[in-house]
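Fold Annotation — chain and its backbone
Encoding — discrete vocabulary of local shapes
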Amino acid sequence: MRNYLKSFNILTEDEIDSFESKVSPKRLKKGDFFIQEGKTSKEIAFVVSGLFRSFYYSSTGEEVTYCFTFSGSFLSAYSSFLSQTKTVENIQALTDIEIYSISRNEILKLEQSSRNWLRFFKFIAEQEYIKMEKRIFILQKENAEKRYEDLLANQPELLQLIPLNYLSSYLGITQRHMSRIRKSLSN
């Protein structure tokens, strides 16, 4: 986590020390939830090891996977965290997980303690926005084959680590269609 925070060249060593003193280590088992629909997000976590899946339920009650979070990343039900309203998302551990968690109150104190924290959190929010925008564009602009090829080229680790049903949901296609695409590309 320290190396991740240092990599942005925004925070001082003392600021990183302060952050490390405020986090709490936690472990989740495969299948556990970091947060579930209907709850309000009160924390942000840094994923030390493991893999999370973020999903919501469609109007027909179907699970829709929209995000995966790997180790070395921050994790939160961000809209709920910012607005302090109930979330519609679920964040579930796909593997055993180790995280460092920090409360919203501690984050707010950090923001008041230094402009560097404001710059850091702004940068993280901007990166998340860019990632979300790219995801929306590819889902709306490209066909299923192109979305799969993009995944293969840019995030091949997803294909190795994530069950097919979650991948197909993430790509916005049925498992059957995904199997056809995989078969046609391997020929």
Summary: The two ends are 42 Å apart (CA to CA). The chain has a mean pLDDT of 93. The beta strands are 24-28, 33-35, 43-49, 51-57, 63-70, 73-75, 90-93, 97-103.
